[in-house]
Amino acid sequence: MSEAASTRRGAGLAAFRAGWAAVYLRNRLFYGLGVLVVLYAVSFAWLPLMVVAHVSLAGLCGFLILDLALLFGGVKPCTVQREVPRLLSLGEDNALRLTLQNNTRRAWRFQLIDELPYQLQVRNFLREGLLEPGATVALGYPIKPLRRGVYRFGQLHVFLRTAIGLAERRVSSGIAQEVLVYPSVLQMKRFELLALANVSRGQGLRKIRRIGHSYEFEQIKTYVAGDDRRAINWKATSKRSSLMVNQYEDERSQQIYCAIDTGRSMKLPFAGMSLMDYAVNASLVLSNVALRKHDRAGLVCFDKTVHTAVLAERKRTQLPRLLEALYRLEENGLEADFDLFYRAFARLNPARSLLVLFSNFESDYALQRAMPVLQRLQRRHVLLLVLFENTELTAAASEPAEDISGIYRRTIAAGFLHQKKQMALRASRAGIQTILTKPEELTIQTVNKYLELKARGMI
After folding, report:
1. What's the pLDDT tens digit per position in 272-303?
2. Residue 233 belongs to what domain range?
3. Cα(168)–Cα(145) distance, rounded to whole angstroms?
4. 349 and 295 in a common domain
5. How far apart are CA 11 and CA 167, in angstroms?
6. CA pair distance 91, 95, nearest whole angstrom
7. What is the DSSP secondary structure assignment for residue 168, as one 8-state letter?
8. Residue 72 has pLDDT above 60, yes or no
9. How is 46-58 classified by DSSP, letter by letter?
10. Same domain, 152 and 127
11. Half-sphere exposure of 118 toward its Cβ, with a 13 Å CA cutoff?
């Protein structure tokens, strides 16, 4: 046998194996075979039934051959594609889209299986439907990644069947995709619009009343209802014969630093995400809002060491730098060293700035140990301490108690919640700006506090 003939034979065998591997027999065929077994068994007692069994077997084989011919005859019956965003946002519903194109003039029933990344822990993804002749079907579905990193999507498998339904043909796309999950860019864009528009809606950003005029003069404009009457410019009013007011803009180029404790206490999970990941999302949103408000945004992350530091700047490349630094953050089991952080931050940034510290003190003793450092930071900067409310304890404290153990659980949970409120109160009495918030409300609370401090001229 020549080498060319051997190559063709090998290719033919490979194609046959691939085609046979794409055949899946359905339950309908096995139900039919089960009925035939019963017919043949009964026919031993009543011979005329043997003819019915033979005809039924021939008919079943004929329908199976016809079904396979329809499935594998002609061109590839369909193509399938997956559309994934270039970057996925942490903790947000990211929209994905699957597109099926029918390449034949025959209608198909289909089942679609997507090999999703293991981080999503979804093992039962299945979509079913009817694919009309020559039609295109678009299927959209959301995914919510709860960890940063690389997410690998596998193949797409479509199982096609005809109206006969004795067998299926598997059509797979050999395209695997890798997508990076970054801190929530979707959340950043959403809050950017709200902050710049200064809108108040539902749980959106609050309008902050401005105190005094410690701002730079911007322009003279026509008075509208709600403007501060103390800002009326009487000279301009006499010239225009209508009320004119001075408009001021916020002070710019203030330094805003987000400091994230990446130690053991920030590994606690709530709704599938760790406290550090909530802080990562909030830091990205706050940094973007600060840059849009013409302030300078920076980042410091620490545990036993200060392992991440981005100087506060207001350049076009600053937001991508912060996004990349936040993407690469990792938690560890070490206890945070606040004394080391104080010394490192004093060398990094000697100028006065707003320091937003994301940490989690689970006991009053832990806060007391860090309080001397926090007070020193407060004397040199405007310190905003962000504490997290334990929502699971809140749920436990509100559960109805049906026995003694239930009363104990409620009492202990209420005690821990009261202790956390006392910790926030102690920090506030020490002159430290403090936020005690649920993890899911962290971003809105932090941005609101930043806008409040800026409106009051405290930074």
Report:
1. 899 999 999 999 999 999 999 889 999 999 99
2. 216-249
3. 33
4. yes
5. 25
6. 13
7. E
8. yes
9. STHHHHHHHHHHH
10. yes
11. 0
Max Cα distance, the chain (Å): 117
Query: Do both 244 and 302 map to the same domain?
Result: no
Q: Which residues lie below 8 Å from residue 287, measured CB to CB, with a gap of 6+?
A: 256, 258, 297, 299, 318, 319, 322
Q: How far apart are CA 377 and CA 371, in angstroms?
A: 10
Tokens at 260, concatenated: 């994230």
User: What's the rounded Cα separation, in Å, for the pair 79 and 85?
Assistant: 20
Given the structure tokens 């014969």, which residue do they identify? 241
Share of the chain above pLDDT 90, in %: 56
Q: From its phi and psi, is residue 149 left (phi > 0), alpha (psi between -120 and 50) or beta? A: left
Taking the C-alpha atoms of residue 367 and residue 361, their distance in angstroms, rounded to an integer, is: 6
The half-sphere exposure of 19 on its side-chain side, counting CA atoms within 13 A, is 12
Q: Please tell me whether residues 178 and 132 are part of one structural domain.
A: yes
Q: What is the dihedral of CA 115, 118, 119, 122, to 10 degrees?
A: 60
Distance CA(263)–CA(274), nearest Å, equals: 12
| Domain total in the chain | 4
404-429 vs 391-398: helix axis angle to the nearest 10?
140
Task: For the full predicted model, state whether its pTM sits above 0.85.
Answer: no
* H helix runs in 241-363, sequence order: 275-292, 318-327, 338-348
Provide the CATH number for the domain around residue 130: 2.60.40.10
Domain boundary among 232, 249, 266: 249
DSSP character for 133? T
Judge if 8 and 39 occupy the same domain: yes
Q: Are 213 and 193 within 8 A, CB to CB?
A: no
- Among residues 355, 357, 362, 356, which one has the least CA distance to residue 335? 362
